[in-house]
Amino acid sequence: MIVGLQRTSRALFTALVLGALFGLWELLVQSGVIPAFILPAPSGVLLTAVNSFSRIAPHMLITLAAVGYGIASAFAAALVTALLMHRFRSVRIVLYPLLVISQTVPLIVLAPLFILWFGFGILPKVLVVILVCFFPIAVNTLEGLDSTDRDITDLFASMGAGGLRILFSAKLPAALPHLFSGLKIAATYSMIGAVIGEWLGGTKGLGVYMVRAQKAFAIDQVFAAILYISAISISLLLLVLFLQRLIMPWHKEARL
Amino acid sequence: MIVGLQRTSRALFTALVLGALFGLWELLVQSGVIPAFILPAPSGVLLTAVNSFSRIAPHMLITLAAVGYGIASAFAAALVTALLMHRFRSVRIVLYPLLVISQTVPLIVLAPLFILWFGFGILPKVLVVILVCFFPIAVNTLEGLDSTDRDITDLFASMGAGGLRILFSAKLPAALPHLFSGLKIAATYSMIGAVIGEWLGGTKGLGVYMVRAQKAFAIDQVFAAILYISAISISLLLLVLFLQRLIMPWHKEARL
Amino acid sequence: MNFFLNNNAAVMEKTEGGGSDGFQDRQTSALAPSLRVEGIKKSYGNLKVLEDVSLELNPKEFVSVLGPSGCGKSTLFHIIAGLDLPDAGHIFVEEDEVTGRTGRVSYHQQKDLLLPWKRTIDNAALPLRISGVSRRRARERARELFPVFGLEGFEQSYPSELSGGMRQRAALLRTYLFSRRIVLLDEPFGALDAITRGQMHEWLCSVLRDLEPAALLVTHDIDEAILLSDRIYILSPRPASVMGDVDLPGRRGIHRREALESGELRGIKDRITRLLSQGDNDGKNSAL
Amino acid sequence: MNFFLNNNAAVMEKTEGGGSDGFQDRQTSALAPSLRVEGIKKSYGNLKVLEDVSLELNPKEFVSVLGPSGCGKSTLFHIIAGLDLPDAGHIFVEEDEVTGRTGRVSYHQQKDLLLPWKRTIDNAALPLRISGVSRRRARERARELFPVFGLEGFEQSYPSELSGGMRQRAALLRTYLFSRRIVLLDEPFGALDAITRGQMHEWLCSVLRDLEPAALLVTHDIDEAILLSDRIYILSPRPASVMGDVDLPGRRGIHRREALESGELRGIKDRITRLLSQGDNDGKNSAL
Amino acid sequence: GRSEKEATGSLEPFTVVLDWVPNTNHTGVYTAIEKGYYREAGLEVDVVQPSESGTEMLIASGNGDVGFSHQEYVTYARTAKEPLPIKAVAAIIQHNTSGFATLPDRNIDSPKDFEGKTYGGWGTELEDAFIKAVMDKVGGDFSKVEIVNVGTTDFFGSFRQGIDFRWIFYGWDGIRAEVKDRELEYFPLIEVDPRLDYYTPVLIASESTLENRPGRLRRFLEATSRGYEFAVDNPRQAAGHLLAHADQIDPEHARASQEYLAEQYIADAPRWGVMKEEVWETFGGFMYEYGLLASRLDAQEAFTNEFLPEQ
Ligand SMILES: Nc1ncnc2c1ncn2[C@@H]1O[C@H](COP(=O)(O)OP(=O)(O)OP(=O)(O)O)[C@@H](O)[C@H]1O
Ligand SMILES: Nc1ncnc2c1ncn2[C@@H]1O[C@H](COP(=O)(O)OP(=O)(O)OP(=O)(O)O)[C@@H](O)[C@H]1O
Ligand SMILES: [Mg+2]
Ligand SMILES: [Mg+2]
């Protein structure tokens, strides 16, 4: 009961402060201190978002498909890679530097190359999403596997468990919190990845929609698209959090 | 001695496999399977990188300045923010959602807006770097502060330590590994942030250089720039690692 | 152990606070109690841990608390130290209500809680640093005590490089440097071997003789309780309440070991054992 | 404790492996030893931990290892269990060399090592799962033993919800379900209160009588060692070597408690204490 | 209206890659789609938009059949260290309708006044050369111009951030200013230096398309030229076709731009799309002279009129 109340009042407080911030922004634009073509008023953005939903929706579905395939493949690939890197020193030695290097190549340069190599279909977008999501999941999971308490693996070994059993029954569960940290990062950035992929070339999707809106000086529509992108990213994040609570009930600290 | 040998042979192995990979790439391009205008041969890229160093260097310095200011300000701001969010529930409630939302807005959309608002100087670039680096440092540090062993803070409290003392003597050191995780992410991505900022607007810098090269179809120069960007990013990462070893000698696991 | 006796002078010199105005007998218990615990109740969610615990600790008195594992002894100490709030009840230190207030008692926790990022010497010196002593001075004070605690040569080691017993001794050294007039000790000798434990007992007795704090000790070793205490409280299984207390005759300490070993105190030991088992037979809980 | 006796039948029924062909006396020690530890040396970096440790464990024999805290007892057990390689020396189980090989002995570690992500019942059932028993069957087997270990009602709790003593009992239950003909016990009763400890002692004796494994126990409680053992090895302070061993007369177990309490075994206890202190007086180490 | 799609099965897919977001330069293609000219030619046309102009690379690597490009990029591409196998196959507009634009308050009366001012562009060396060329003509000092890459920042937005002049397509940004009633100073490139009257934009195709699928390309260009011819005659309707595919464009802006371009698509040429070798030679020479090219351009390699409809 008290917890419930606290929660409500906390949400209320957040809403109030955020409301005040947005109110100030609205005021600044309405009063002309900030010209609307530089920063549209939040009310305008909201209105545009609602009004153009039916126009944005088909683009959104295209982007979501890329995100869905991307996260799923990144997750599977990252898990396998982390397990292999953990188990085989040689795989780790070769792959780890490559992975880190891959993160230092600007997406904005890579995405056009992907399109060059793989055409205008969904594939290059999915690849960008994978590129964004793979690294945090793989590296976090690997860190989790590496940092499993030596005593716990010893316990399994002393009971005659083999290497694979230790990997899957001891190390993988111990690595779950890390894995979920990686997934949370992946969820946060996956939409951005897909949008950048589209931004740099494509026929449909939120990215394409935004470029067009921007070049047509429809800044309210750019912001409306941002609104949808943020909303989807946050929903994905909450989904991961929900999954974590579901899968790791013993872990009391599952938070954002 | 044995450790030293192992290290050497490990490095040798990595070098060998990476060498083989690059050799394959070279072969594919040289033999014409991949046209050189799509993907230049590594030998060509290396040659270009060496030859055009004197032309790239001034751009590099500009980009490095933005990265330096960006990381430094992001670090300071993130540390303060994390401490405030940890200590004041109200700050956390308001800021945390805003921070997460800020991460879901595509940089590629924000950077042009920054330019619109702050001009073509170094400021918008520094802001992009801050935007990229602030979040991982702040969130990781906050997580570290939050997850400090309750027993340890109790220990301090039972010895009569005040809230601030507990914050700085117990929680901050306990949060250091997390803080460094955040810094490692920040170091990896800071260069990308600066380059994107320049790509989307600026007078000088690696991003500007790359746009020019790309528009003139000098793809070998684009790749040479990528090479420098990766090298700098990795040097930054190693620097953070070195600092971690220096500052946290008790932490045996300081790794990439 | 001769080691200890030789070093007593040094130990005495270094102790702070606590009027060491010579040895006094237990008659002081007639004064107002140092610590009064009144009707403490505590639950975690649906789990009732402390039912209704009341106890008193007189100045200079050494009192042990015995109770089955999991009955709530550590929880009780946490509340006394002000680190947790009770659901009901009050804590008084020297007649001041201190419920939920920290810093009035010295609390040695069950876990060693050494800070992994500090070298052993800085871990030990922590309480001095918190009370404002300069780093140099604090280290000096701590260093002098390292031989006494069998930690010589490990001043610069990080806690991860110490064995379980060594960690516990380092934690004891830290508690020693945070002496207050009331000391709570939660199984301080849990991880020590018999010999070291015996030596620590003797050392504790000599420290107590010098500092004369009032001390409350949690232990699961009946012999240890008998050896060190003026009085023993017996707690029931969870939810804990005080099942009774046993007064011990004569002066505590080294003298009592002989009485214990010769079987002289057999009657008292039996009474304690009976009280402890009684909680079980009440069927209050299914623990062994 | 009556509880235990009542439940013996159940316990017996459930135990696996280990020929329980009735009770035999200690004459069996004339056979080839179950476990032979030969000249084990081990250093961590510059820290010499084990100097030269050799010992033997005969079939069905119960042997304790006493030694000061930090001398290397846990390290020795790790090596025997095959989890660590010695710098020199060999381990033989039933005449097979098993140095560095795991799975041949049942090893109860000093820490409880419960998996935080498994409920208590699945933690207990872990060894059965590893040896290929189905989840349902494994849980059934484990559940039956929960009352015996005083954990009834906590089957579905996560380890973080148990007290220190309860965790240790859960770990013991797990070890019980991984019975091998050789059992290593590293301070299994460290966190238990006196009463529970006494009950665990009796229960251990009855289990040993049924399973007849050869057991090696690390403890820092001399009384415990005397109560349970056929023989006791005394280790020197670090770097550890065997300082001597003490044979105990008559049958171990419950009968011996009376002998102990009546002072009958005083001579032996004194001898052990002398041996243990001797290591100290040698000045090998600066510990108390 | 949009024609039905039931015949898709028999149509050949054909991909057109734009050079920018949809605008009035592309209208002919949209008109051809809307009027069903491509269907009549047996083509199912798909329009793709890249924002970073990588169109030349995409076409060279076989991603897309025809792309929108510009003569300067084709020239670059043909003379690059690793030349791109592409050719211009049609000119969209016959004369260069681009130039430098500034706001009246910047007090720029002639290119000489660029001295000490800030130029905002896309960061290419070509732009530097143009500015230098026009300033050389009137005796200005190019080294006193500050060059800024404004990336995707919009026209008026950049002027608020200290930019003094930019390079624009009059048919798009110039018309927009007119529609919005904003005053603009405009210096057309062709008035400064006739060598700068080159084809921008052009349609390009890869050499392999020219060799292996000439028929398809011919049919495409035939339908496309019908589209542009229609736009020349019916600018208002053509604007509607564009708007049907790019709903974010301000309709008024689209219509005004369309009316301006109706005069420009064919202009003085015999028919839509044809290019003169002389123009390629001259502009190639200009780029070489200003050090933008490593080697001289062979105009024959860069363009062809061969696939344009006869008559
Ligand atoms: N933070 C907590 N949340 C929920 N339950 C708790 C918490 N702390 C302790 N408990 C529960 O309270 C009971 C008492 O725990 P406590 O640690 O006080 O026991 P104890 O008497 O010190 O046991 P031991 O002798 O084993 O140390 C246990 O059942 C434990 O599971
Ligand atoms: N992994 C390790 N690295 C370095 N030193 C270690 C390691 N493990 C143990 N040691 C050291 O080896 C010595 C013996 O440790 P061990 O845990 O075997 O002692 P122990 O006899 O079991 O002590 P206790 O009775 O306190 O449990 C200690 O000094 C410890 O610091
Ligand atoms: Mg406790
Ligand atoms: Mg040990």
Protein described:
The complex is a heteropentamer, with two copies of chain A (256 residues), two copies of chain C (288 residues) and one copy of chain E (311 residues). Chain A is mostly helical and 256 residues long. Chain A has two domains: 1-34; 40-254, MetI-like fold. Chain A is built from ten helices and no strands. Chain A has helices at 2-30, 42-51, 53-87, 89-103, 107-118, 123-146, 150-158, 163-199, 206-215, 219-247. In chain A, helix 7 packs across helix 8. The radius of gyration of chain A is 22 Å and the shape is globular. With 288 residues, chain C is an alpha/beta fold. In chain C, 36% of the residues lie in helices and 21% in strands. Chain C is built from nine helices and ten strands. Chain C has helices spanning 2-14, 73-80, 120-130, 135-145, 164-176, 194-211, 222-228, 254-261, 266-281; strands at 35-44, 47-57, 62-66, 88-93, 96-97, 106-108, 182-186, 214-218, 231-235, 240-247. Chain C has a ten-stranded mixed β-sheet with strand order 5-4-1-2-10-9-3-8-7-6, sandwiched between helices. In chain C, strand 1 (35-44) and strand 2 form a beta hairpin. In chain C, helix 3 runs parallel beside helix 5 (164-176). Chain C is globular, with a radius of gyration of 19 Å. In chain C, 52% of the residues are buried. The model of chain C is unreliable at 1-29 and 281-288 (pLDDT under 50). By secondary structure, chain E is α/β, with parallel strands linked by helices. Helices cover 41% and strands 16% of the residues of chain E. Chain E has helices at residues 27-34, 37-40, 55-60, 71-79, 125-138, 155-160, 170-179, 189-192, 207-212, 214-233, 235-245, 251-262, 277-289, 299-302, and strands at residues 12-17, 43-48, 66-69, 86-91, 98-102, 118-121, 146-149, 165-169, 185-188, 202-206. In chain E, strands 2-1-3-10-4 form a five-stranded mixed β-sheet, sandwiched between helices. In chain E, strand 6 (118-121), helix 5 and strand 7 form a beta-alpha-beta unit. The longest helix of chain E is centred in the C-terminal third of the chain and has 20 residues, at 214-233. Chain E is globular, with a radius of gyration of 19 Å. Classes of the chains: A mainly alpha (256), C alpha/beta (288), E alpha/beta (311). Chains in contact: A-B, A-D, A-E, B-C, B-E, C-D. One adenosine-5'-triphosphate (ATP) sits between chains C (44, 47, 49, 69-75, 110, 238) and D (161-165, 191, 193).
